[in-house]
Amino acid sequence: MILLTVLFLCIISTYSASVKGHTTGPSLNNDKLYKFAYSAEVYVDRVKASLQKSAGYRISSDVDVNLLWRNPDNDDDQLVKITIRDVQVENVNERPAAKNIFKGKSTEKIIGKEYLQALQRPIVLELVRGKVKNFYSYQNEPVFTQNIKRGLASLFQLQLHSGTAHEVDISGKCDTTYHVRQDQVTKIKALDSCEIEKQGFNSHNRILDVSTKATSATIYVLEDSFIKSIKAEENYVLLLNSRRKSGAKIVSKQRLELKSVQAGPGLIAGKQVASVIKTLDSSYVAMPLVAEPVKSECKKCPSIVDAVTFAQTPESLEAVLEFLDFKDASTSTLQERFLYACGFASHPSEMLLKSLTAKFKGDIANEEIRETLVIVMGALIRKLCDREGCKLPAVVEAKRLILSRLEKAKKDDNVRMYLLALKNALLPEAIPLLLKYAESEEGPISNVAATALQRYDPSFLTKEVKETMNRIYHQNRKVHEKTVRTTAAAIILNSNPSYMEVKNILLSIGELPLEMNKYMLSMIQDILHFEMPSSKTVRQVLKDMRAHNYDRFSKMGSSSAYSGYITRGPDVSSTYSLDILYSGSGILRRSNMNIRIFDRNAELHASQVVIEAQGLESIIAATPDEGEENLDSFAGMSAILFDVQLRPVTFFQGYGDLMSKMFSATGDPINVVKGLILLTDYSQEIQLQSGPRASAEFLGGLAIDISGGMEFSLWYRESKTNVKNRVAMFIAGNAEVDSFFVKTGMETTLEVETTLDFISTVQFSQYPFLVCMQMDRVESPFRRYVTKYESLPSGRRYTARRGKAELLAGNEYPLHQENSNMCRKVFGTKSDSSSNWF
């Protein structure tokens, strides 16, 4: 009895999950002609805009369907003839006559006589259990008309029971799910699973890239075992990850509705499909149901010099390398601009790295260009490895060259050059070398190696790395400079530190040089204030009174570290961090400003500007700190821009150079980087299931000018550093459906200009000396525009444009309260003539 009950429930379940009376596919009646009304519509607009105001067009027609042949041995094997008639092209939304580009034009004039005739030639489908086994059409027809027919033919493919299937249609081989309820079938196609030839590329970093979401649903209503109506809708939504309010959507709709059933032609006799097709028309050939790619023309060919490099094609690379002569020092400015454009390339090729490696092996007149070249090679290695290209021959060769030459290098300048390349490449196999140079060397070399290790993801920082960093910080083997020790501490605290590692760092505060005491204390407080990952462990350690007491946490000094938010938004947020470390005599050792952008899944190191100085105590007859007695006088600036380390700039090197520049100083800042950077570079071709092909392009460029300077006044015993970041950003997006006879689309643009200044002023006439840090952003113009358009090859065009311009208020970013109090003292005690430097 129980067995019978279970069997009965299974039968009921099977019945309810299939169309009544059928378990395979739809079936046509013999000698009948099914007359349908068909329409295919495309819409292009902003993501949240109403379709009633979108740009687009509609192709409508009558469609005749009749059964040609049924397999005598299998009723579910059918040949069906489909004919498109009376084609019309019109606006997808009603427009006044003056704005209707199709007004007064016949379909033949819009599409063209040849294309219209091709579109109205019949196609034949072999349907086996509801699936298209063969698609028959005429050869040498225009690709566009064939794809329109493929889009219509794909609608006739369905199954009459619930479940999933891997189906081939115009979109490719796709995962498809069917939900069946009585005489209604819903087909959901997972477009991201479709296997089809894809054309396009995206940006290297996810934050600078474009996200795409695609959906497809088709609803069938059946009557008398065949189709009564079909409604299909396909949506593509494209969003800028950095500003999800900006984007585009492309919507494709298809409708097929049965109007009447009439007497039709009889069946063709035959046992084999091939013989039936030959009898019908020997010109028919079996063709793939998957869409045929349409060759697209260059839409926005580069027209400026910088864009030649950003075009990232073999032809553009060959042209620019032929133009630039690296043996000629007089063109070094252009050479450097080209190299940085390569470093910021969104999708670099193996050929680009191979070409630069060959240039590096050859003669280069300017040593700074040589240094820039190998640093950029490091950036390209990382980008290619991130795209699973680490085993490409050019990547293997470039890695081998940098690692082998580093180990053979004798001069400090060469060692530093290869270390900077590794700082960009971030190769796991380079970590042992970086550890060796960080622990055993001194000065800039040790510092570059340590900061290179700081850029690695914490997952690469093994037990050996952390042990070495602990030895450096606690000086277990040798005395190290403050800059290297504080970098080692930062690596430890940012890589899931253990309880004892944090405790030992906290216990060291109080035993360090004066300003390092204050700096480390400020770093710990910043971890707690900003809720960094290690804050939980730090709080646990602070419960121990030996680590957390007044004596340890009341150390005097002017060094500091502080982090805060620039913006916090639903899409992305950006943070800044400012830290500044002084020597015991009040002279700057290092100021470090970082800006990071992140979302829920990715992070981008947008910029870092570091100003470093050493060996300047002799200027004011002060005593150097421990471990820094033998350092040469030096000051310089280093920058990271969009995850790419740039070539550092030297203000002065050696005491003689220092004196010369002090007495000839103009106070003008020194430029670190200036030029155009391609941030967002996204292009995708999208095959719509109705037949047309859409495209989406987003380009984002940045004009940037980063400069910095360092000034001293011996008379007023005051120093000042100034880092100025001037940027102008432009983003343009274009979503378009190009059907050869009509184009419809939407362009969106964003423009913003701003300047971010970081100024630190130090008065070292007393101790603790007075330090004021300021971070300001000026008023920023912000403009955005949206243009929707429809156009014919004849030049007739409809355009709708709207935009908004506004002025974003300037802002002085708040640092910690102690800094605010210090700034009041600095600017309250400065005399009116204190700006008279030297």
Can you walk me through this structure?
The structure is a single chain. Helix 8 runs parallel beside helix 10, helix 13 packs antiparallel against helix 14 and helix 17 crosses helix 19. The protein has about 850 residues and is of the alpha+beta class. A hairpin with a 4-residue loop joins strand 16 and strand 17. The protein has 22 helices and 28 strands. The chain starts with a helix and ends in a 9-residue tail after the last helix. The strands form 3 sheets. It has a 12-stranded antiparallel beta sheet. The N terminus and C terminus are likely disordered.
Cα-atom Rg, whole angstroms?
34 Å
Q: Strand pairing plus helix content: what structural class?
A: alpha+beta
Quote the average pLDDT: 86
**Helical amount:** 25-40%
Largest sheet entry? 12 strands, antiparallel
Q: How much β-strand is present in the residues?
A: 35-45%
Tell me the number of helical segments per DSSP (H or I, 4 or more residues long). Answer: 22
Q: Which outline best applies?
A: elongated
Give me the side-by-side strand order of the main sheet: 6-7-8-10-11-12-1-2-3-4-5-13
Low-pLDDT regions: 1-23, 298-305, 831-838
User: How far is it from the N-terminal to the C-terminal residue, by CA?
Assistant: 106 Å
Q: What is the number of strand segments?
A: 28
Please state the oligomeric state of the protein chains shown.
single chain
Keywords: Disulfide bond, Endoplasmic reticulum, Lipid transport, Signal, Transport
Main location: endoplasmic reticulum
Protein name: Microsomal triglyceride transfer protein large subunit
Pfam families: MTP_lip_bd, Vitellogenin_N
